[in-house]
């Protein structure tokens, strides 16, 4: 149980809840966007494959901007809060097979603390005070 | 630490990550949708208020369909996985003040296990086997 949870919280609806950024920015925006890098196709693939594999306790959702645009397409998997940058169908399948089916981590695709953007570092410093 | 987490997982990017369903269904759809019940206005309010209050370690995102259409507008807050049905600005403000700022629960708005949809119950039974 994380320090955010409480003993009398209801049981979760989903064992794993995946949010795939599909945010779109105007063409030429300096940060780029996940949609322009094929995020929708990847999200649709994950959704279809999760259904195909009978992962009824896992939900694949699209989300708005996860603010890791330069590293996209990105996704985050809760409740464990693991972030991935994935570029291809093969990446998506590996996350599905290893993380979602077997509870492993796909280290080569994981976003790490040193991948934080400057404004995250500022927020972290603030919350640590 | 929940049983989904691992000791060597990176620190989370956000202390609280809120996903507000803003899904839209065609008019007249029997399940209804969060968007038709004012979800975008509520999500925009939460986002603006979180900024105003300096909640830098909290992110308010929009998401696709969270599949609680009949109970919407709905949101889920991770990593704790608490679901809310909220209808008004006052509801949104109470969640912000009590849950996000003080780590409490807004019991009157929380979705409970008995609010599960029939297909969730089937999935739960399956995963418990």
Structure, explained:
The structure is a homodimer of 129-residue chains. By secondary structure, chain A is an alpha+beta fold. The first copy, chain A, contains 3 helices and 4 strands. Chain A has a 4-stranded mixed sheet with strand order 2-1-3-4, covered by helices on one side. In chain A, strand 1, helix 1 and strand 2 form a beta-alpha-beta unit. The two termini of chain A are 24 Å apart. The mean pLDDT of chain A is 89. Chains A and B meet through strand 1, strand 2 and helix 3 of A and strand 1, strand 2 and helix 3 of B.
Q: What's the quick description here?
A:
Two copies of one chain form a homodimer. In chain A, 29% of the residues lie in helices and 16% in strands.
Order of helices and strands of chain A: EHEEEHH
Count the strands of chain A? Answer: 4
Backbone structural class of chain A: alpha+beta
Number of helices of chain A: 3
In this structure, how is the largest beta sheet of chain A organized? 4 strands, mixed
* Unreliable stretches covering 5 or more consecutive residues of chain A: none
- Spatial strand order of the main sheet of chain A: 2-1-3-4
How much strand content do the residues of chain A show?
15-25%
